[in-house]
Amino acid sequence: MESPAAPPVPRPAAPARPDIPITTTAPVKRERRWSVVALCIVLAAVAGLGAAAAVTSASDRTRVLAVARDVPAGQALTDDDLTVAEVSADAHLTPVPASERGSMVGKRPAVDLRRGGLLTASQLSAGTGLGDDKQQVGVQVKRGQAPAGALAPGDKVLAVTTPAQGEQSDVKGAEAPPSSINAVVVSVSRPDASGTIVVNLAVSPTDGPLLATRASTGRIALVREPRGH
């Protein structure tokens, strides 16, 4: 009698295989997208800083007075001599504020002012330093009665009285020396259409009335003394 066959032993179930995700480009795209966003944020920040700097720079600018044309030392300032400029605030600069323009008219600079320069308080003083302790006389000088374009504030000159028309200037056949007054040039006006200028001269108190009398007749010529003497 045959023994019965052993029942088949069931095979153990194979372990479940984990699902392996399929590699896609999605993570790369996400990474690139964040890079673009980050770059945009950085650019926006830089642009914001630039705009803020521009606004700050503009707010630091101030309106001051500048010289519109050349002005010799000693010549009274006019409104046309001044203009308004905007400059950045600088502790090392002390230009006159534009709001003081009206009070600057009539003041006399102690130094020559050049067109385009800023007007500073140090360029102005209570006096010009050019004969402020003396009398000043305005002398109208026609073309040919003074060196053309050679007079400047501070120059020493001789105010020579010229003879009147028909007046004899010789004594016993010899030419008499002309009468003259020592003076210092304070300012020189711009020539008019005929070339006539007005020269402000500083003279001693004893010579002021005499020079004014001679100047009223138009009989004054100016001789510039050598500079440096």
Q: How far from one another are the termini?
A: 161 Å
Largest sheet: 5 strands, antiparallel
User: What is the typical, i.e. mean, pLDDT?
Assistant: 76
Percentage of residues assigned to helices: 10-25%
Taking strands numbered 1, 2, ... along the chain, how are they ordered across the largest sheet?
3-8-7-4-9
Kindly state the number of beta strands: 9
Strand content: 15-25%
Structure classification: alpha+beta
Q: Quick one: overall form?
A: rod-shaped
Number of helices: 3
Rg from alpha-carbon coordinates: 45 Å
Which helices and strands appear, and what pairs or packs with what?
Elements: H1 26-59, E1 61-67, E2 82-88, H2 101-104, E3 135-141, E4 156-161, E5 170-171, E6 174-175, E7 180-188, E8 197-203, H3 208-216, E9 220-224
Antiparallel strand pairs: 1-2, 3-8, 4-7, 4-9, 5-6, 7-8
Quick take:
With 229 residues, the chain is α+β, with helices and mostly antiparallel strands. Helix content is 21%, strand content 23%.
Give a verbal description of the structure.
This protein is of the alpha+beta class. The chain is built from three helices and nine strands, in the order αββαββββββαβ. It has a five-stranded antiparallel sheet. The longest helix has 34 residues. The mean pLDDT is 76.
